[in-house]
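Batch manifest, entry 17 of 40.
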Amino acid sequence: MPIEEEDENASAKSAVDQITSSGGTSTDAEELLESEELKRQLKEAKQKLKSSEN
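Output type: structure tokens
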């Protein structure tokens, strides 16, 4: 697993921990994780598009 991906996973996990420890529900945490995953997929898609243009 690339280091960058590990960092994203760690930051997503710490964000979930922050939400649940501050009284948020696991649903809030799941929604945040979903949004983080979508951002990551978008970034990957943009990179693929950029590399295919060159």
